[in-house]
TrEMBL record:
The keyword Signal applies. It is a single-pass membrane protein. Residues 183-205 are annotated as: Disordered. The lineage of its organism: Bacteria, Pseudomonadati, Pseudomonadota, Alphaproteobacteria, Sphingomonadales. Belongs to the LemA family. Gene3D superfamilies: LemA-like domain (1.20.1440.20). This is LemA protein. Residues 1-22 form the signal peptide. It is found in: Membrane. PANTHER family: MEMBRANE PROTEIN, PROTEIN LEMA.
Length: 205
C-alpha cells in the first residue's frame, strides 16, 4: 500500500480529529457571543435615542428642574461616547467602563422619573406616556440582551477551556476568554420601573 494511498485513507479521520479540536466550533461560539454583544449595544443606543425627546417633553412642564435635566443629558453624552469593539470583549476593564457609563445614565433617568411624580400634567401628557412606554420596553430588552450575551460568553469560555476544543482554541485560534457584562449599580440586573399610576387623559401641550 503506497504512502499516498494511506494518507488518502487517513484524511477523513484527520479531518474529523481537527474538527473535534474546535476548528469550527470555537469561532462559531466566538461569533455568537459577538453578535449578542451587538444586541446589547443596539438596545443601549435605542435608549439613548429616546432621551432627547424625553428631556424636551419634561422640560416643557418642569423647566425649573434644570439640574436633573442637565444630569440626564450629560450622562447620555458620556454613555454614547463609551463604546466597546468586538476586540475588547476580552478586556474586563473596558466592559466595566462601559457598564459604569450606562449605569450612570440609568441612575440619572431614575432621578428624572422621581421628579416627574411632582407634575401630574406631565404624567398624563400623551407624548410623555408614549416615551415612557418605549423606555420601559427598551429597559426590558436591555436586560434580555445582557443576559443572552453573558450566556453566550459562558458557552464560549467553557468551550475554549474544555477538551478537545481547548486544543484547537489554543493552537489554531489563540482564543482568549471573553469577559461577562456585570451590572455596576444596585438592581441593574433587572429593568428599572419607569411606570406611573394611571392618570386621567389630558390634552397634549
Amino acid at each position: 500500500m503506497s504512502v499516498l494511498f494511506r494518507l488518502k485513507a487517513l484524511a477523513p479521520a484527520l479531518l474529523l480529529a481537527v474538527s473535534a479540536c474546535g476548528l469550527n466550533s470555537v469561532p462559531t461560539a466566538e461569533e455568537a457571543a459577538k453578535a449578542r454583544w451587538a444586541d446589547v449595544q443596539n438596545e443601549y443606543q435605542r435608549r439613548a435615542d429616546l432621551i432627547p425627546n424625553l428631556v424636551a417633553t419634561v422640560q416643557g412642564y418642569a423647566a425649573q428642574e434644570k439640574d436633573v435635566l442637565v444630569g440626564v443629558t450629560e450622562a447620555r453624552a458620556r454613555a454614547t461616547q463609551t463604546n466597546i469593539t468586538p476586540a475588547q470583549l476580552n478586556d474586563p476593564a473596558a466592559l466595566q467602563r462601559f457598564g459604569e457609563a450606562q449605569g450612570a445614565l440609568g441612575s440619572a433617568l431614575s432621578r428624572l422619573m422621581v421628579v416627574v411624580e411632582k407634575y401630574p400634567e406631565l404624567k398624563s401628557n400623551t407624548n410623555f406616556l408614549a416615551l415612557q412606554s418605549q423606555l420601559e420596553g427598551t429597559e426590558n430588552r436591555i436586560t434580555i440582551a445582557r443576559r443572552d450575551y453573558n450566556e453566550a460568553v459562558q458557552a464560549y469560555n467553557t468551550r475554549i477551556r474544555t477538551f478537545p476544543d481547548a486544543i484547537g482554541a489554543k493552537v489554531f485560534h489563540g482564543a482568549q476568554p471573553m469577559a461577562p457584562f456585570q451590572a455596576t449599580t444596585a438592581g441593574a440586573e433587572s429593568a428599572p420601573k419607569v411606570s406611573f399610576p394611571a392618570a386621567a387623559p389630558a390634552a397634549t401641550r
